[in-house]
Amino acid sequence: ISPDDLSGQRVLVTLGPTRERFDPVRFWSNPSTGRMGAALATAAWLRGAEVTVVAGPCSVALPPGVRRVDVQTALEMDSACRDLWPSMDVGCCTAAVADFRPIAFGDAKMKKDALGASGLVVSFDENPDILAGLGTLKRPDQRLIGFAAESHDLAANAQGKMQRKHLDMIVANLVNVPGSGFASGTNQVRVFDRCGGDESWPQLDKTEVAWRIWDHLAAI
Ligand code: C5P
Questions:
Q1: Is residue 30 among the annotated active site residues?
Q2: What is the residue-wise DSSP string for the chain?
Q3: pTM of the predicted protein model
Q4: Ligand 1, closest atom to CA 170?
Q5: Residues within 6 Å of ligand 1 by CB
Q6: What angle do CA 14, 17, 23 make, to 5 degrees?
Q7: Contact 41/66 with Cβ under 8 angstroms?
Q8: Which of 30, 127, 157, 176 is catalytic?
Q9: Average pLDDT, rounded, for the chain
Q10: Which of 194, 1, 14, 7 is nearest to 97 (CA)?
Q11: What is the pLDDT of residues 75-117, one digit of tens each?
């Protein structure tokens, strides 16, 4: 039996990658599967929350009671989240948003035989930081959770992000650790919160990580 401790809470979860179009047949993206976000959304729903997921292109299954808004690009995800955020109590950004989008080649397919001697040169524009945007708009009654995948200086980088993006809690993991991060069923995380909390959790199934994240948010 699930606890009903999130009953009445409106929860927004972003998940999956974003897909940044270059031409009609090519895009820039990353291997995020959306599993951590789906585990969080499902756990929140089972605990009584009204859950809205803004999902980049991925094939995770969500309970039928979870509202799902599908988007492709970071700009679309940003706009959907900004529209939804004022009516939410909690935001949880797990999406692996592409930080940059290629300046689109155009409506026609780029042909390799049309390239000059310098080969293919692609320029990029910076995408908005969706989580930081929600942090800036956050009201005192709203709470915001972010994620951080780091390759080094995990504590300093994660705590820096928590401050900069006005988060209540950040869930950090080291990349390139087996059993953690992208496309893994498990995750090994260190959790920091705005009250100074710093906990290292063992390697756990993502479902278990999700349940502990909601427990932790309730405790701070
Ligand atoms: O700064 P960094 O990209 O490592 O931060 C990761 C956190 O910020 C994640 O919670 C991710 O969902 C969010 N993020 C975002 N929009 C971006 C980049 C990251 O919402 N453009």
A1: yes
A2: ----TTTT-EEEEEESB--EEEETTEEE------HHHHHHHHHHHHTT-EEEEEE-S------TTSEEEE--SHHHHHHHHHHHGGG-SEEEE--B--SEEEPP--SSPPPGGG--TT-----EEEPP-HHHHHHHH--TT-EEEEEEEESS-HHHHHHHHHHHTT-SEEEEEETT-TTSSTT-SEE--EEEETTS-EEEPPSEEHHHHHHHHHHHHHH-
A3: 0.95
A4: 10
A5: 14, 74, 93-95, 97, 99, 127, 129-131, 146-148, 161
A6: 130
A7: yes
A8: 30
A9: 95
A10: 14
A11: 999 999 999 999 999 999 999 999 999 998 888 999 988 888 8
**Ranges of each domain in the chain:** 10-102+120-219
Question: Does domain 10-102+120-219 correspond to CATH entry 2.40.10.170?
Answer: no
Q: What is the pLDDT of residues 152-205, one digit of tens each?
A: 999 999 999 999 999 999 999 988 777 776 767 899 999 999 999 999 999 999
* Token output for 33: 């599967």
Q: What is the pLDDT of residue 113?
A: 85
* Phi, psi for residue 122 in degrees, rounded to 5: -115, 130
